[in-house]
Amino acid sequence: MSAHPIRMAGIDKSFGPVRANRAASLDVAPGEIHALVGENGAGKSTLMKILGGLVEPDAGTVEVNGRDVTGWSTSDAIANGVGVVHQHFMLVPTLTVAENVVLGNEPRRGMLFDRTRALADVNALIQRTGLVVPADRRVSELSVGEAQRVEILKTLYRGAKILILDEPTAVLSPPDVRELWTVLRKLRDDGGTIVLITHRLDEVIDISDTITVMRAGATVGRMKTSETTPAEIAKAMVGRDVALSVPGRETMSGPGATADRPSSAAGAPLLEVRDLSVSDSRGIRVVDGVTFSIRAGEVLGIAGVEGNGQTEIVEAIAGLRDIAAGSVAVSGHDVTRATVKDRRAAGIAHVPEDRHRRGLILEYSIAENLVLGAQDEFSKRGSLDGARIDAHAREQIAKFDVRPPTPTPAARTLSGGNQQKVVIAREMGRSFTVLLAAQPTRGVDVGAIEFIHRQIREARDAGKAILLVSAELNEVLALADTVAVMYRGKFAVTMPARDATPEALGPYMTGGNSRDAA
Amino acid sequence: MSESFRLRAEEALLPSIVALLIALILGDVLILMFGESPAHVYGRMIEGAWGNPYGFAQVLYKTTTLTFAGLGIALALRAGLFNIGAEGQLAAGAFGAAIVGITLPAGTPGLVAVPLCLLGAAAGGLLTGGLPGVLKAKFGAHEVIVTIMLNFVVLALLNWLVVEHLRTADTLHTPEINAGAVPRLSEFIPAFHGSAANVTFFFAIAAAIWCWWYLFRTPGGYAVRATGLQPDAAEYSGIRVGRVWIKAMALGGILAALGGTNFVLGYKHYYEDGFTGGSGFLAIAVAIVGRNHPFGVVLAAFFFATLSQGGLAIHALVPKQMVEVLQGIVILAMAASVPEVQRALRSARKVVAA
User: Based on the number of CB atoms within 10 Å of its own CB, is A158 exposed (0-12), middle (13-18) or buried (19 or more)?
Assistant: First the structure.
């Protein structure tokens, strides 16, 4: 078996006017973990869809294990051991882990589903791979990390030898990521081939053996991980030098980055939160007596594993969730019971964590989205002022570099990075004093991350108070003046950014040090 | 701009047209099963509906009620709410207009009486549409259940009021109104003689234009559509979703209720028990086939009115349920074809663009 598991060459694929792949190539050697990196819209997913049989290329050849398989179907791909683990879980929540894994290839006894054998088979697979999940538990009761292991098990159960993982760490906590790495290395050492799609450079360095970089549909580089640096990869991805605050390695070890900041101690407190508690629909306290204040020119970063109350604390401050106890004040005015609209008028800008659900009306045009919430101000004698909305859109599009640079396309048609820029433009393009930024760079490419971070820094320098919530520890460390870790609805620890390192914060994120913190 | 307008118009109209063609073909099969020639039957239908002034005027009369009720449903649907209560709202509107018309002294000038009667109708719609909106916003009561049930409540209540308090002897209707009647179209176009078509037809067209302006040109309509598309995003932006629901249901109820004036002010000049005859339910199909666009609603109302009027002309050839079957097929074809046609349109465009 000296043939390469995957060899794709000269792949062209257009969707209408969009050339998703142009002469793209991919060459994966046996027994390696291969990272496929590139900005959003660089053509990574299309290339992998072609490999997985979902999409047929316009030109080029696809070879798997030395055999020409150009234009094969998904069932061919599965039958030949190529398995894709999708970014969005495709699991049936009401079924057990074992049932989900065997779904589609159920072991039978006569006409009936052989539950005992399914469980035994899946347990054997878990043993062999080290993907530890309770096989008889319902998927709805699993954590996100566990659910992802089920996805991988599902693919392996169907006999995949070539495993394609699409952004597998997007939803994982750092310990889950480490565990995933262990499993992937074991799969590789057992003779599997792994292609990992990602745009987190620190992960690429951590896990991959070889890297293929794509830009604008074409393959622009192939390098050995041991012989390159994050800066070099980022440059290949974007096509120019990038100020690598995130997610590069440098900041991981460099708390000195905070030293060159203007001192922020002088500002007046703009956001004051006292003993804030929030209950969820079942009455459970998801935010439990949190107190903090943010001064003008200060960034408070909340780190932590997702699901520890970060979403709820932001939504409670924004007015989207009832406050069970405590108070919120903006510039000294109490807004604990104010409507969303009144809070916005009081100076709160809010970049929500889920732009598809909250941040944008996807069917509305860019111009319409840019006035969301301000539609009354963009009206004249009871009618929307189309000319002013259009002019406002053109101005903001130019200022925030939204592409395509026209006001009419529906938000749905934009790439993730440009959708986020529309949200940022709307929230930061008007006057505000407090910015709530929840996961501001989630699912956004390197170039846009750089841009968004610059916006946040400029807002800080302009004397705004900023609450940053991010699952990316590096992002928090790069931007925040003060870092808090949230664990089970409380601040487990709060420390100045200069003392905050992944090593210092890590234990608090899993509750390990919560007693010492008190 | 004109290019994007063309694309949008294509996307809006084509699914409806495809659905109508499918219904036409399935109708062929049915007609053949009755041993008649489809061309002959359809010819007679068209002839009956459009081939003579009286038939055409009757189509306009039926279009009026269906347009108002269809707009009432479409407006609520734009806010994400399914208003099944148009039947009761039509009746409540008709009753409200009749009460005002009966109360006013004879000889009240039309310029005063007609607006007052319209207000009476609107009040009926405000109550019957607004109540489900309030229950939805305050208690989370599902508007489909509430509006369906409210139909029975409203119709039974009006029946009781008419029978016990307002009845003219030996009938099931109220006394005639003293003021507020509007002219029939036959007063301007003599050929329409004998038809019930009246000036409220123009009110319906005006209502459609207002609806379009409201939905697509005002901040209120912007909030309504945002709420219907993504309530979470609307809430995030400061739109008070509950208030939008109440407003959309109330406006929808008012629009549907105004449809009752077609019968009361334009035709019989009294409220009669059971006059709606299911128009409020047919209007659901009108809103869906009209794709919730005010102008689409007018076209769809005209289409269903044609089907209904043309159906009268073919009773001799095929069973009279034929028209109802055709209506059902149109609705099914619409539901099945809209996503399919849109997908096909988009991929066809991709090919063309490439």
Answer: middle
**Which homologous superfamily is A6-245 in?**
P-loop containing nucleotide triphosphate hydrolases (3.40.50.300)
Residues B206 and B250 in one domain: yes
Mean pLDDT by 10 residues, chain A (518 residues): 83 80 92 87 85 90 91 88 83 91 87 90 90 88 82 90 86 78 90 86 87 90 89 79 47 39 65 94 85 95 86 95 95 95 96 92 95 95 95 95 90 88 95 95 84 94 95 89 92 92 79 47
Burial state string for A477-492 with b = 16 or more CB within 10 A and e = fewer than 16:
bbbbbbbbbbbebbbb
Selecting from B218, B235, B350 the residue whose C-beta is nearest the C-beta of A320 gives B235
**The tokens of A265 are what?**
């101690």
Q: Does A338 touch chain B (CB under 8 A)?
A: no
Identify whether the C-beta of residue A100 lies closer than 8 Å to the C-beta of residue A49. no
Q: What architecture does CATH give domain A255-347+432-517? A: 3-Layer(aba) Sandwich (3.40)
Chain B contact set for A350 (CB, 8 A) = 236
Q: For residue B4, is pLDDT > 60?
A: yes
CB contact under 8 A, A358 and B219: no
pLDDT of residue B239: 96
Domain that holds residue B354: 1-36+330-354
Residue B8 at interface with chain A, using a CB cutoff of 8 Å: no
Query: Does A2 reach chain B within 8 Å, measured CB to CB?
Result: no
Element (H, E) at B9: helix B2-33
Domains A6-245 and A255-347+432-517 share a fold: yes
Interface probe for B, chosen from A384, A389, A432 (most Cβ of B below 10 Å), is A384
pLDDT of amino acid A518 = 35
Strand duo A434-438 + A465-469: pairing: parallel
Residue B180 CA neighbour count, 13 Å, CB half? 31
| Beta-carbon contacts of residue A190 (< 8 Å; ≥ 6 apart) | none
**CA of A373, closest CA in chain B: separation in Å?**
5
Same-domain check for residues B68 and B107: yes
Distance from B201 to chain A by nearest Cα, in Å?
26
